[in-house]
Design a protein that fits this description.
- It comes from Thiohalocapsa halophila.
- With 309 residues, this protein is α/β, with parallel strands linked by helices.
- The protein folds into 2 domains: 141 residues, NAD(P)-binding Rossmann-like Domain (Rossmann fold), CATH 3.40.50; 162 residues, Lactate dehydrogenase/glycoside hydrolase, family 4, C-terminal (L-2-Hydroxyisocaproate Dehydrogenase, Chain A, domain 2).
- It contains 10 helices and 14 strands.
- The longest helix has 21 residues.
- The chain is globular.
- It binds nicotinamide-adenine-dinucleotide and (2S)-2-hydroxybutanedioic acid (LMR).
- Nicotinamide-adenine-dinucleotide binds next to helix 1 and helix 4.
Length: 309
């Protein structure tokens, strides 16, 4: 990929820029933020790490959205993070206004880009951007499940003592307390995780995964998570940039898959150079179907609120 823009040079945006540069996932990174001078400072600071991390990708920053011109991909991290005690939906009203403005800038300056949405509540804001751009779902998608699955993998690694490298997990549904961790598909190098963890301990891991963002927020106090979220974004960008055809849980517009449409939420998707190439349908058992529908209802409630904002 030639150029990636990152909107929002805050914690997630800055950390994402650093990883994309270190991994040389494109030739040019542009950071755009409404705060004057901040994105210039972030871009310059990261560029000065080039000799240590041995990259020659260029970085620029500006509070002029025209800096996004010519982008192949725009990563949207602009907006308020929640504070302790809040749900992600509690920042919907504040973030919709920001996201609408950002979307209009992308339409004006980067009309050929794909958009990877990170700002919360990510399912509803991905839906909003898809509506406002009218672009195909292959070009507008969000990050949530890659992060949630990495949290679940970390908890399984802690519980079992196995290397995190060998743990495969998948989390579907909306990126909220109703998310749907899928233990049936979790393995340790192909061996079902249920071989190693007692059912009640696995239930505790599922619950901890659902509250994974709140746990970091409570520990960090002044900030929600950004290291693992940025790494999750970078993993998705790597799949797209290198045309890897990876199967990853992404926030996708549903067009009849899982019996749903007119909603965006987390489902397994294939990422390749075209962006979100396709949605993969898994057969859900009764319990999974029930949990998935519960999550659909939660995301739909937020989408309905959009009409009032
Ligand atoms: N999807 C996920 O998994 C995930 C993970 C972590 C964080 N998030 C979300 O990402 C968002 C950013 O989190 P953060 O910790 O980086 O917050 P932050 O406050 O550190 O950064 C947000 C940045 O957005 C900028 N901004 C605000 N309005 C803007 C506008 N109109 N145009 C351009 N930039 C604008 C701010 O100036 C700020 O620099 C939050 O909504 C958070 O909840 C999502
Ligand atoms: O928890 C949050 O609000 C931020 C993010 O969605 C996360 O899961 O870390």
């Amino acid at each position: 990929m030639q150029k990636i823009s990152i909107v929002g040079a805050g914690r997630v945006g800055e950390t994402t820029a650093q990883i994309l540069a270190e991994e040389e996932l494109c030739r040019e990174i542009a950071l755009y933020d409404v705060r004057e001078d901040v994105s210039e400072g972030v871009a310059l600071d990261i560029f000065q790490t080039a000799p240590f991390f041995e990259f020659d990708c260029r970085l620029t920053g500006s509070n002029d959205p025209a800096v996004m011109a010519g982008s192949d991909l725009v990563v949207v991290t602009a907006g308020f993070p929640r504070k302790p005690g809040m749900s992600r939906s509690d920042v919907l009203a504040a973030n919709v206004a920001i996201i609408d403005e950002v979307t209009d800038h992308i339409l004006a300056h980067a009309p050929h880009a794909s958009i990877l949405v990170v700002s919360n509540p990510v399912d509803t804001l991905t839906y909003r951007i898809a509506q406002r751009t009218g672009w195909a779902r292959s070009r507008v998608f969000g990050q949530a499940g890659v992060l949630d699955a990495s949290r679940m993998a970390a908890f399984i690694a802690e519980e079992t003592g196995f290397s995190a490298l060998d743990i495969t997990t998948i989390v579907l549904g909306g990126h909220g307390d109703t998310m749907v961790p899928m233990p049936r598909y979790c393995t340790i190098n192909g061996v079902p995780v249920s071989n190693f963890i007692a059912p009640e301990r696995l239930d505790a891991i599922i619950e901890r995964t659902r509250k994974g963002g709140a746990e970091i927020l409570a520990l960090r106090k002044n900030s929600s998570a950004y290291d693992a979220p940025a790494a999750a974004v970078a993993a998705m960008v790597d799949a797209i940039s290198n045309d890897r055809k990876r199967l990853m849980p992404c926030v996708a517009l549903l067009e009849g898959e899982y019996g749903e449409r007119d909603i965006a939420m987390g489902v397994p998707c294939v990422l390749d150079e075209s962006g979100l190439a396709r949605v993969v349908e898994l057969e859900l058992d009764d319990r999974e179907r029930q949990d998935f529908e519960h999550s659909v209802a939660a995301v739909r409630a937020d989408i309905q609120r959009l009409a009032e904002l």
